[in-house]
Design a protein that fits this description.
homodimer, alpha+beta, Nuclear Transport Factor 2, Chain: A, six-stranded mixed beta sheet, 3 helices, globular
Chain lengths: 124, 124
């Protein structure tokens, strides 16, 4: 697969809410996942596909998703692409509906996503 | 200035269409600017604030801007932030109105933007 194909598949699966399937099919076993900033109770940097699947499952289980939007993919050079996400969610912990916007930056090597870095403001 | 202040100023100036002022006030003299892919007639990577100002002037002169949107900034870690841009423009060369979406990825060192990388699809 080309960078473009990996990117298009990721965006298509995210649009369908199939984020876990995206990790299983498109991510390297050694993927590194980096959040925007340290979060209490969570490692900012996680390594390995099992840790990333765990983080995805936690997010899915702890948020009610009302809607959202996915823009992209936006490629750059031979091995990276970005995606812009909007989420309309209620975290189950707070019960307070909120809008979350973020940019995901993905690095691809040998047709697999080897790194995901999330860009967002902690101020909501 | 903190990363957040540099990022907020960049977004505020871009929202006002003052991109050239953003370069003049927020960019390092040694800034590196990288487009998503090689473009005929333009270097993919430009170095130095004068080259980047020239590219900005070229863009402003060759596009009629009808509107747009700027989302962000979205910080990550100590030294990077992303911005999501939408433009509604007519390139004067084609006269054909089009929508352009892209992600800008910015690296900040010593309170100045030292690198800008643009992520977009060449397919429009």
């Amino acid at each position: 697969m080309s960078l473009k194909e990996v990117a298009n598949q990721l965006v298509a699966l995210c649009r369908e809410g199939k984020n876990l399937e995206a990790v299983e099919t498109l991510y390297s076993p050694d993927v590194v996942s980096v959040e925007a900033a340290p979060v209490p109770g969570m490692e900012q940097t996680m390594k390995g596909i099992d840790a990333v699947k765990g983080k995805n499952k936690w997010w899915i289980d702890s948020h009610e998703v009302h809607g959202g939007d996915v823009k992209g993919p936006f490629p750059h050079g031979e091995d990276r692409f970005a995606v812009y996400f909007e989420f309309d969610v209620t975290p189950k912990g707070t019960g307070k509906r909120m809008q979350m916007n973020e940019v995901g930056l993905y690095t691809v090597k040998n047709d697999k996503i080897t790194k995901e870095e999330y860009f967002y403001s902690m101020e909501g």
